[in-house]
């Protein structure tokens, strides 16, 4: 597969390579669903391991920091199938406490949106968890993908991709697109 944006090759590889090891946020968003969170690498622990501090002081270990050794400002990509939810605290790194905001039963699994310290994580699970319940979200450091933080250019000038998304900025890059949170209910309350 050749993933292109505006006539420029972003990455070449198999579908699995692009999905598991995207070169940047555009590629990660192009193939599959992910949660994107901006952070700063605050410590490297030899090799590929790095500690990334997200908004609100939340920290995650990543084992994928090597492709961008000079980059401190990163965007973390988390795939829903890599965010494991449980009602009891698991052992290991990258365990976050959150509250289930939404659920969507899809037959083979349920998709959840979990509020963790003010940001929303997407997760897929076979477990039956209730909206509003407190859960622990754990993420294997091998599945925490660090991407170079990208900037989009809009009418107001350069803006980081995640800020542009929150503002609805119409920049040149596709990174400003953020999917809407799922809506549930009968639709009667919506006009």
Got a strand count?
14
* Termini Cα gap: 42 Å
Order of helices and strands: EEHHEEEEEEEEEEEEH
What share of the residues does DSSP label as strand, in percent? Answer: 35-45%
Give the helix/strand class: mainly beta
Helix amount = under 10%
Q: What is the overall pLDDT average?
A: 82
Unreliable residue runs? 163-191
Largest sheet: 5 strands, antiparallel
C-alpha Rg (nearest Å): 17 Å
In short:
By secondary structure, the protein is mainly β. The protein has a domain at 1-32. The chain has helices at 15-20, 25-30, 161-167, and strands at residues 2-5, 8-12, 35-44, 50-54, 59-62, 73-78, 83-86, 95-105, 110-116, 119-125, 134-139, 145-148, 151-154, 157-160.
Describe this structure as you would to a colleague.
- The N and C termini lie far apart (42 Å).
- 27% of the residues are buried.
- Strand 4 and strand 5 form a beta hairpin.
- The protein is mainly β.
- The protein contains three helices and 14 strands.
- The chain is 10% helix and 42% strand.
- The chain has a domain of 32 residues.
């Amino acid at each position: 597969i050749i993933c292109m944006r505006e006539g420029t090759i972003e990455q070449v590889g198999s579908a699995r390579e692009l999905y598991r090891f995207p070169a940047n946020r555009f590629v990660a968003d192009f193939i599959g669903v992910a949660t994107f969170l901006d952070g700063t690498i605050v410590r490297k622990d030899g090799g590929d391991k790095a500690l990334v501090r997200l908004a609100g002081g939340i920290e995650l270990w990543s084992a994928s920091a090597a492709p961008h050794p000079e980059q401190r400002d990163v965007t973390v990509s988390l795939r829903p199938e890599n965010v494991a939810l449980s009602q009891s605290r698991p052992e290991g790194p990258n365990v976050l406490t959150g509250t289930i905001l939404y659920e969507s039963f899809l037959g083979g699994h349920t998709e959840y949106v979990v509020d963790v310290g003010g940001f929303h994580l997407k997760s897929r699970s076979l477990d039956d968890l209730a909206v509003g319940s407190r859960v622990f979200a754990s993420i294997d450091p091998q599945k925490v993908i660090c991407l170079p933080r990208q900037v989009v250019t809009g009418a107001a000038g350069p803006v980081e991709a995640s800020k542009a998304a929150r503002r609805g900025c119409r920049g040149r890059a596709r990174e400003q697109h953020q999917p809407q949170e799922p809506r549930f209910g009968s639709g009667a309350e919506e006009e």
